Fold this sequence. Notes:
Layout lengths: L5 H4 E4 L3 H6 L4 E6 L5 H11 L5 E9 L3 E4 L2 E4 L3 E8 L13
Antiparallel strand pairs: 1-2, 2-6, 3-6, 4-5
Amino acid sequence: MANVQYYDVILKPVITEKSMSLMADKKYTFLVHTEATKNQIKEAVEKMFEGAKVKSVNTMNADGKTKRRGMTYGKTAKTKKAIVQLTEDSADIEIFAGL
């Protein structure tokens, strides 16, 4: 992976009904850079959100879907999702607090 800083790893939080129900177990879902490793995701969450201590990271890769417009075929971009589990004594992540 070529020179990706910790602030480039996390792109945006995923706000769905399922991800909101996981927040009760201190699991937070983020859309992350497609080439980010689990260690880089853990480091990025701990640096960006003060007081957060990561217990584990689970990742999912999604290939781009084939789309068609007339006779032309193309693909949407690949994505990667990460579910971050925080430790019991960790502080909650504030961006999800008002939701």
